[in-house]
Write a structure and sequence with these properties.
Shape: globular
Radius of gyration: 19 Å
Order of helices and strands: HHHHEEEHEEEEEEEEEEE
CATH superfamily: Phospholipase A1
CATH architecture: Beta Barrel
Number of helices: 5
Largest sheet: 12 strands, antiparallel, barrel
Strand content: over 45%
CATH topology: Outer membrane phospholipase (ompla), Chain C
Helix content: 10-25%
Distance between the termini: 29 Å
Length: 301
């Protein structure tokens, strides 16, 4: 049912927003400035409440974990379960991600600065698990709002494109004891070179009362920062996302995701990715594993 609803919503979006459909299915290679409407085309800068792509949109037909999290646990004792869940090591996953600009030129035409709203959903489906009637193991919901300001400078041979600041909520929408969530203030710095882009995102978790905290110390696993490196040329695209706790000793943790895609036809691409570390999904925030998957994508970084 959830897949039908999600696909119906995506279909309505594509039918009702021509510019989004063109971006999704007919988009040529574009820059970070294009991604955030920071170019010289004045018409691009004035389009509000138009649905656009944000993060990669893809389906992994199969992904395999070397260490399945069958007994999710949390630093909050009220968020633990006592009985192991018979999960398969192989499952499917899909991600949808959209954004829309809601305010133009906060600091006027010369300085600029736009406000965006975005939504990303990642779902993990135990489609091969007939013993559990093929359930969705986990769905992560990530709404956010952000302010993006264009900048112009050179650093290490790269061009500065933008800086930003925003609010991010991420949760799995589940009831206790399997509820996981956190809120963050996220900054970002984006630079770009020929065929290459670099986006650095440090963040600060907003505190919660101990008794309401679903995942104490999550920032020591999912990290306090993220570095996104992308490279693309011709039919090939590569991206690497690294997160780290910015701590040493026993809290020296993080993760890395490496993805490669190759064009099949138009914007349909074959995608393969490897994830290693903590927090592939919210329920796995303090669980370490390595996951290999492959599938198809419509949007890449």
């Amino acid at each position: 049912m959830r897949i039908k609803i999600t696909m119906l919503l995506l279909g309505l979006v594509l039918a009702g927003h021509t510019s989004f459909a063109q971006e999704l299915f007919g988009q040529a290679e574009y820059t970070l400035a294009d991604h955030w409407d920071l170019g010289d085309n004045e018409n691009d800068d004035k389009d509000l409440f138009v649905i656009r792509t944000y993060k990669p949109v893809y389906v992994l037909v199969a992904k395999v974990s070397n260490n399945v999290n069958r007994l999710p646990h949390s630093g909050n004792p009220e968020r633990n379960i006592d009985e192991s869940i018979p999960l398969n090591k192989t499952e499917q996953m899909f991600q949808l991600s959209l954004k829309t600009k809601i305010f133009n030129d906060v600091f006027g035409d010369k300085v600029g600065g736009d406000i965006w709203a975005a939504y990303t959903q990642a779902s993990f489906w135990q489609v091969f698990n007939t013993d559990l009637s093929r359930p969705f193991r986990e769905t992560n919901y990530e709404p956010e709002a952000m302010f993006i300001l264009p900048v112009h400078y050179r650093l290490f041979g790269l061009d500065g494109v933008s800086v930003g600041l925003g609010f991010n909520h991420q949760s799995n929408g589940r009831a206790n004891p399997l509820s996981r969530s956190w809120n963050r203030i996220v900054a970002q710095v984006a630079l770009e070179g020929k065929n290459t882009s670099v986006v650095f995102k440090p963040w600060l978790r907003l505190p919660e009362p101990d008794e309401e905290d679903d995942n104490p110390g999550i920032e020591n696993y999912l990290g306090r920062s993220e570095l996104l490196l992308t490279w693309g040329k011709g039919i090939h695209a590569v991206n690497c996302t690294a997160r780290h706790s910015l701590r040493f000793g026993e809290n020296n943790r993080g993760s890395i995701r490496f993805a490669y895609s190759i064009k099949i036809i138009d914007n349909l691409r074959f995608r393969a990715q490897v994830f290693s570390g903590y927090g592939e999904s919210m329920i796995d925030y303090n669980h370490r594993q390595t996951v290999v998957g492959f599938g198809l994508s419509l949007v890449e970084w």
